[in-house]
Amino acid sequence: MTTARFNALQVSHSHKPVHVDHTADKSIKLYACNVFDDVKMARYMPEGVYKKVKKCIAEGQSINRELADHVANGMKQWAMELGVTHYTHWFQPLTDASAEKHDSFFTLQNGVPVESFEGKVLAQQEPDASSFPSGGIRNTFEARGYTAWDPTSPAFVIGTTLCIPTVFISYTGEALDYKTPLLRSLNALDNAATDVCRYFNPDVKRVIGTLGWEQEYFLIDEALFSARPDLIACGRTLMGHNSAKNQQLDDHYFGSIPERVMEYMQDLEVECHKLGIPVRTRHNEVAPGQFECAPIYEEINLAVDHNMLLMDLMMKIARRHNFRVLLHEKPFDDVNGSGKHNNWSMATDTGINLLSPAKDENGNLRFLTFLVNTIKAVYNHADLLKASIMTAGNEHRLGANEAPPCIISIFFGSQLSKTLAMLKEETAAGKVLTPATKQSIKLNINQIPEILLDNTDRNRTSPFAFTGNRFEFRAVGSTANCSAPMIVLNSAVAAQLVKFRQDLDMAMGKGGTFEDNVLEILGQYVNEAYPIFFEGNNYSDEWRQEAEKRGLDTTGSCPQAIKAYTSPKSVELFEGLKVLTRRELEARQDIYAENYMKKIQIESRVMVNLAINHIVPTAIRYQNLLIENYKGTVEVGLEELAQNRFDTIKKIAEYIYTIKRDCNDMTEARKKANVISDNQLRAEAYAETVKPYFATIRDAIDHLELIIDDEMWPLPKYREMLFCH
After folding, report:
1. How far apart are CA 217 and CA 344, in angstroms?
2. 145-174 tens-digit pLDDT
3. Tell me: the pLDDT tens digits for 216-236?
C-alpha cells in the first residue's frame, strides 16, 4: 500500500545538501552590504546633512521634513544602485510576524514616468489599521492608521525592496505594535539609569539597553512537513508516539552538524550578514532535529528588529534547502521545546556595562546598585514578566522538564548569593550594617571579577539567571517578538531606579555617607525581594510547593497570566513612565486572549479532522484485517491462539470509541465557548473546557500508532521527521 507518508519519505530521501559558496572573508566583505548604515549615510548624503541626522538620532530629536528629504534622496540613490524598484514601511503589528506594503519608486509627473522617493513618504505611510489586531481601539469601519519612520534602526534591502523600519499607531495615536512601547520603555530606562549613574560618574550622558538573543529551532524535511496537516496549520504535531530513540543519549547536543544542515546554516549566515545581523554562533541543540544560532549583543531596538528579520530569513532560506523551520515552542511531544533566551544588560555611553563587576570600590558599588535594583524590579513585577512570555505555544513548553517553569525566580550562583545574603541579614528586622560587615561586603564585591566571571555555575532551569555580566531571561518562547518581555523588563527596572533615587536622596538629606546610605537601601531591597531568590532545581515539585509558601505566582495558564497586563499595579507602572496607557494595555490583553483562543480553536479543528478522517478510518481498516484473520484462525481450530488477536481488536475498538467520543465532546465544548463575546472569558473557557481533550485524544491515537501496521499508518512518524537530515 502506498500512502502519502511513504511518498513523502521517498522524496525526503532524495534531498541532498545544497552547496553554498561560503569562505572566511565572504562575511566580512558582505557584512551590512544591504543596510543603509553610517558608512552609506556618509557616502550618499551631504556632510552637513549627515552630521545633523546623526545628532538628531543620538540626542533623540525629531528629523524635520527638509532633512528627511535629503535622507530619502540618498537612500533612494543607494537602493537603486542595488536594483531596488520598491519601498515599504516594515513594521511589527501585534501578530506573530512583521508586516509590509510595497510601493514603487515609479510614478508619473505630468504624464512623464519618473523615479520618486521623498521625505514625506520616508517619514510616514498609511496602512489599514482595522485589519490588524487592535483590541477594540479601531473598529472595522475606522481604517486609518499610520506607520512612522524609526531612524534609530537603519533601512535595509531585501530583494528589490527597500525596507524602512517604522512604528505603527492608530489614527488617534495609540500604539498598535511592539516597537512603539519598546522605544518608550528604552527612553524611560535611559533617563532613570542615567540619573543613577551620575551618582557614580557625572560624565555619563546616556544609558543603552543591550540584548543578545539565542534562537532555537527545528528543521524537518519539506516533504515530511507537507504530509503533516498539523504542522502546516499549527506549527506543532498534535499526535505522534515517541521515537524509540530521541534525546535520551544526549548525543545530539553540540554534536557534529549534519552536512545538509550545515549548508543551510552557512546560507543563513551569509544572508544575515548582508543585512547587518551579527550572527556568530551555531550548534546542535538537545533534541534531535533541533538547532540554535545567536548573534553578538546589540542595542535592544536593533536586536529586536534583527531577530524578526532572522526568523523571516530562516523560513525563506529553508525552502532553498528543502527544509521547513519549526519555531513553535513545543513542536514534538516528550522532546525538548525551543526557547529564545534574552540576555539583557545596560551600558553607558562611556563604555561601561552596568551589570559587569568592576575592580574598584566605586565601580562595584555601582554594579551592586544596578544588580539589586534589577532584582527588586523583577520581584515587583514578576507577574507582568510572566504575562509577557505566556502564549499558547509557550504554555506547552514552560515547566516541561526542559524549560524554566511558570514561576519567576532569580539565580545568582554561590559567590554572589553570599554577598546578597549578607546585605539581607544585616538589614532584616531593622538591623544596621556594622563597620565589619561593610568591610566584608566590600571585600566580597572586589573579589567578584575573578570569581563570578570564571567560576560561577549556570542554572539552566532558572527562568531569570544572572550569568556574570547580564541577566538571561530563559523563559521567552522561540516564536516571540523580543519586544514583549523587553518592554516589561525595561519599564520595571526604570521605575525601580526612579524609586531608588528618591530613597537615596531622602536618606542623604538625613545625613550619613553616600556609601552607607546606598548599602542600607540595597539591603532593604534584597530583604524585600528575597522570596524570588532560588539556587536549586526549578523543575522539582518541591520548588513549586516552596514557591507557593513564599507567595510567588505559580499559575501555568496563559489566559490567567495575561490578566497582569491590566492590574492596577501594571497600569500605574506603564502610565507613570508614559510607555503604555490603560486603553493600550486593555487592548493588548484583549488581543493576546483572542490570539490564544484562536490558536487553540485551530488546533482543536485540525485534531478532529486528523482523528476522524485519517486515524479512525485507518484503524478500522486494520481492525477489519484482524477480524478476518481472527475468523480464519478460529475456523482452523486455533481458538486459543486467536485470543491475542481478539484482545487487539478490542483495544482498537476502545481507542476508536475514545477518539470519537472526545472529539465530539471537544467540538461541543468549542461551540459553547464560541458564544462568549468577551475575549478574555472565551480564552479561559477554551483553556478549561476545550484544551483538556487534546491529551486524551492524543493518548488514544498514539496507542493506535503502536498497534496498527506500519505500512498503513498515514502520518510521518517522529523517528522519520526528527532524524531525516
Report:
1. 21
2. 899 999 999 999 999 999 999 999 998 889
3. 999 999 999 999 999 999 999
Q: Which SS3 state, helix, strand or coil, does residue 244 take?
A: coil
**Closest to 314 in 3D by CA, of 219, 402, 224, 411:** 219
Write the DSSP assignment of 527-577 as a string of letters. Answer: HHHGGGB--S-TTSHHHHHHHHHTT------HHHHGGGGGSHHHHHHHHHH
d(CA 295, CA 279): 4
Q: Are 387 and 562 in contact (CB under 8 A)?
A: yes
Centroid of chain to Cα 272: 19
- Dist CA 544 CA 477 (whole Å): 21
Residue 454 binned pLDDT confidence (cut-offs 50, 70, 90): very low
Backbone angles phi, psi at 16, to 5 degrees: -110, 165
pLDDT digits (tens, 9 = 90+) for 549-577: 999 998 889 999 999 999 999 999 999 99
What the block records as the C-alpha cell of 341 is 533566551
Residues 6+ apart with CB under 8 A from 259: 17
pTM, full prediction: 0.94
3-state secondary structure string, 149-171? ECCCCCCEEECCEEEEEEEEEEC
In this structure, what DSSP letter does residue 126 have? -
- Grid coordinates belonging to 253: 547536543
pLDDT digits (tens, 9 = 90+) for 650-666: 999 999 999 999 999 99
pLDDT band at 640 (very low <50, low <70, confident <90, very high): confident
Strands 86-90 and 102-104: antiparallel
Average pLDDT value for residue range 515-523: 93
CA angle at residue 544 from 539 to 548, to 5 degrees? 160
Closest to 63 measured CA to CA, from 162, 150, 168, 180: 150
Give per-residue pLDDT as tens, 677-716.
Answer: 999 999 999 999 999 999 999 999 999 999 999 999 999 9
CA 500 to chain centre: 30
Q: Give the side-chain half-sphere CA count within 13 A for 82.
A: 23
Question: Could you count the other beta carbons within 10 Å of the beta carbon of residue 717?
Answer: 18
- All residues at 6 or more sequence positions from 268 whose CB lies less than 8 Å from its CB, including other chains: 279, 293, 313, 314, 317
What dihedral angle (degrees, nearest 10) is formed by the CA atoms of 530, 535, 539, 541? Answer: -60
Q: CA torsion sign, 80 to 85 to 87 to 90?
A: negative
Instruction: Decide: 602 and 233 in contact? Cβ < 8 Å.
Output: yes
Q: Please choose, from the candidates 616, 721, 630, 606, the residue with its C-alpha nearest in 3D space to the C-alpha of residue 225.
A: 721
Cell of 509: 538629606
**H/E segment holding residue 293:** strand 290-295
Taking residue 37's Cβ as centre, other Cβ atoms within 10 Å add up to: 15
Hey, what's the cell of 209?
A: 539597553
- Say which range, 21-25, 40-44, 112-116, 269-273, has the weakest mean pLDDT: 21-25
Q: Is the dihedral of CA 224, 229, 232, 238 positive or negative?
A: negative
- The tens digit of pLDDT for each residue in 107-128 reads 888 888 888 899 999 999 888 7
Rounded to whole angstroms, the Cα distance separating 294 from 288 reads: 19
Rounded to an integer, what distance in angstroms lies between the CA atom of residue 637 and that of residue 620? 26
Count of other CB atoms within 10 angstroms of residue 220: 26
492, 338 contact by CB (below 8 A): no
Task: Indicate if the pLDDT at residue 386 is higher than 90.
Answer: yes
Helix axes 435-455, 414-427, angle to 10 degrees: 160
